[in-house]
Design a protein that fits this description.
The chain has helices at residues 2-12, 23-26, 29-32, 40-55, 93-108, 111-122, 129-164, 170-179, 191-199, and strands spanning 64-68, 74-77, 81-85. The chain is mostly helical and 202 residues long. It has one domain. The chain has a three-stranded mixed β-sheet with strand order 1-3-2, covered by helices on one side.
Length: 202
Amino acid sequence: MKFLAGILVFFASMGVHAHPFTDAQDMRNYEVLLDRSPDEAAKSTLTEDFEFLRSNGVMPPNALLLVVKAHIIAEVHPNEVVAVSAELAKSPREARLFVLAHEASHLLNKDDEHKRLFIEAAVSPLAPWHEMRQQYAAVLPQLQQAAKLTEFKADRYAHNALSKLGIDVRAAARKLFTEHAAESTVWHPAAKDRLAALMKLK
């Protein structure tokens, strides 16, 4: 059952945490992750940010950083891996910390694990393949809505955690969402809605 659910999760999670690009770009994530040779300066910068968050209790203690050449900004993978584009190193520090802290929320809340368990409960591994697809399609709207809510939750976690460290990320987040603006996608709320929610936080 876990194997079959894992297959569905794989297709379901394509692009779930590629912030905040479009689905068309998200679909390339798993191909570009094969290129793991970013420049050392970018890797050093992002590693320093990652360790800063870990040392301050924002990032889970066992989380691992993978810096890649990719069209994504960041996304989480199994075994507490946070994959981050080397391009993020060019952004202001506040933006980098916001993105990494956002991913930390996904790890801490086990968002991908909850998605897998949801699918396991909803899809019978004993059903023929076409019936499995029908079962999955029936629960997909609920899964999508839940995924979008986790994005708002992760933005809020990043804002609150960094605010406690004296770091105001709202200006950087505004620039980030404006530069990579996207309409609502299968798994993500629209960038403008995420930004509006973020601006309401104190």
